[in-house]
C-alpha cells in the first residue's frame, strides 16, 4: 500500500475514557487484554492481544480509535468466563495490525472462542517494509511463540481447549496460515510469477517498489513451519499461492478453509481456482466460500462517515471504497458466520 493508510497510525492503543459497565450489559461485549510475547527469533518482545468470553468485568472502552475506522468496544481486563474454550490464533495482513481486526476477533470471542493475535514486526502498521515482508519464516515463528507462551501461562492456559486450536489469517496472514498447515513456498516460482505479471499484481508491485531482488529471495520463503498443535486452518484471501511448492501438499493438513472476496472485483493474486493458482484443485476438497460484491480491502474494518473522502484528499489508499453494491458490514457478518461454522463455535449472541 502507498501509505499503509496514514490514518491507521492514529489507532495505536486503548482509546477514550473508560466507562464503568452496567451488569445488564454482561453479554454485549467480549473481554480483551494485552501482553508481551518473548520470541527467541526477535530482538524485542512481540505485542500481543487476546479477546475472550468475558466473566466478571469492570469497565468497557474502545480498543482502537481512528479517524478512519469504526472502533470495537470490549470489557478491558475482564475475567475469563469459566470453562474450556477453543483457541484461535490470528495473523494480520501486510501493513495491518492485531487490533484492526477487532470486528472479527470480538465476534468470534462472543461465540465462545479465545482469540490471540500479535503484531508481526516488519509487516505491521507503521512498520511495513517490503524487504522484510518477503521473509515468511519469522511470521510463522511469531504464531508458534505466541502459542508456546499462552499454553504455559497460568492466567490463560486453564481456559484453553487444547484439542481445538485453530488459526485464521488474512492476505499475508493467510500465507502464514498456510505455512503453519505445512505448505511451503518456492522462491523461483514466486520470481517467475512476479516477472510475468509485474505491477498488475499488488503484492509484486509492493515488493518491487521496496527494491526486493526477485532473483535472490531469502531461503526462508521455503520454510517448513507446520505446527501439529493446530488442527484447523482458515486462509482469507491468501497471498503467494502461485508459488506453492506442490511437493509440500502431501504433508499439508487438509482441514482447511479458504475465503475469497469478490468475483469480477476479486484480487487476482488470491484467485485459488483454475483461473488462478488452482490451489483448490491441488488439495483434498478444502472448504471454500466466496462473498461478493467485494474486493480484497472489503475485509478491513468498517469506516466512519466521511473517511473515503478524507483518504481521497490525502491521496491515500482507497481502503474505504468497495465495489458498487457492497455492504461491508454484511460481508463481515458472512465471514464471521462462515468461520464460526467451520470451527464449530457457538451461535451468534444476537
Automatic annotation (TrEMBL):
Transmembrane segments: none
InterPro entries membership: AB_hydrolase_fold, FrsA_esterase, UCP031982_abhydr
Entry superkingdom: Bacteria
Gene3D superfamilies: alpha/beta hydrolase
Keywords carried by this UniProt record: Hydrolase, Signal
Signal peptide coordinates: 1-21
Name this polypeptide is given: Uncharacterized protein
Amino acid at each position: 500500500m502507498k501509505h499503509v493508510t496514514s490514518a491507521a497510525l492514529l489507532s495505536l492503543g486503548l482509546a477514550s475514557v473508560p466507562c464503568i459497565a452496567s451488569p445488564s450489559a454482561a453479554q454485549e461485549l467480549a473481554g480483551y487484554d494485552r501482553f508481551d510475547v518473548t520470541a527467541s527469533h526477535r530482538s524485542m518482545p512481540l505485542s500481543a492481544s487476546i479477546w475472550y468470553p468475558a466473566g466478571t468485568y469492570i469497565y468497557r472502552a474502545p480498543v482502537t480509535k481512528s479517524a478512519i475506522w469504526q472502533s470495537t468496544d470490549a470489557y478491558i481486563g475482564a475475567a475469563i468466563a469459566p470453562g474450556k474454550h477453543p483457541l484461535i490464533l490470528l495473523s494480520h495482513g501486510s501493513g495491518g495490525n492485531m487490533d484492526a481486526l477487532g470486528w472479527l476477533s470480538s465476534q468470534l470471542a462472543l461465540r465462545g472462542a479465545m482469540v490471540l493475535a500479535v503484531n508481526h514486526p516488519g509487516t505491521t502498521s507503521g512498520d511495513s517494509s517490503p524487504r522484510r515482508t518477503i521473509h515468511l519464516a519469522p511470521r510463522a515463528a511469531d504464531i508458534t511463540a505466541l502459542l508456546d507462551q499462552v499454553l504455559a501461562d497460568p492466567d490463560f492456559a486453564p481456559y484453553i481447549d487444547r484439542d481445538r486450536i485453530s488459526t485464521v489469517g488474512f492476505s499475508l496472514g493467510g500465507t502464514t496460515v498456510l505455512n503453519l498447515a505445512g505448505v511451503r513456498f518456492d522462491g523461483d516460482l514466486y520470481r517467475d510469477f512476479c516477472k510475468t505479471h509485474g505491477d498488475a499484481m499488488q503484492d509484486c508491485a509492493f515488493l518491487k517498489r521496496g527494491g526486493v531482488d526477485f532473483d535472490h529471495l531469502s531461503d526462508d520463503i521455503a520454510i517448513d513451519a507446520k505446527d501439529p498443535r493446530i488442527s484447523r486452518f482458515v486462509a482469507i484471501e491468501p497471498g503467494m499461492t502461485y508459488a506453492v511448492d506442490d511437493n509440500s501438499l502431501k504433508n499439508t493438513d487438509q482441514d482447511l478453509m479458504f475465503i475469497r472476496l469478490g468475483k469480477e472485483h476479486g484480487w487476482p493474486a488470491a484467485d485459488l481456482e483454475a483461473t488462478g493458482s488452482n490451489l483448490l484443485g491441488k488439495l483434498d476438497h478444502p472448504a471454500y466460500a466466496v462473498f461478493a460484491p467485494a474486493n480484497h480491502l472489503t475485509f478491513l474494518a468498517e469506516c466512519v462517515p466521511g473517511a473515503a473522502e478524507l483518504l481521497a484528499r490525502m491521496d491515500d489508499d482507497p481502503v474505504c471504497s468497495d465495489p458498487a453494491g457492497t455492504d461491508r458490514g454484511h460481508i463481515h457478518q458472512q465471514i464471521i458466520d462462515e468461520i464460526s461454522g467451520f470451527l464449530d463455535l457457538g451461535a451468534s449472541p444476537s
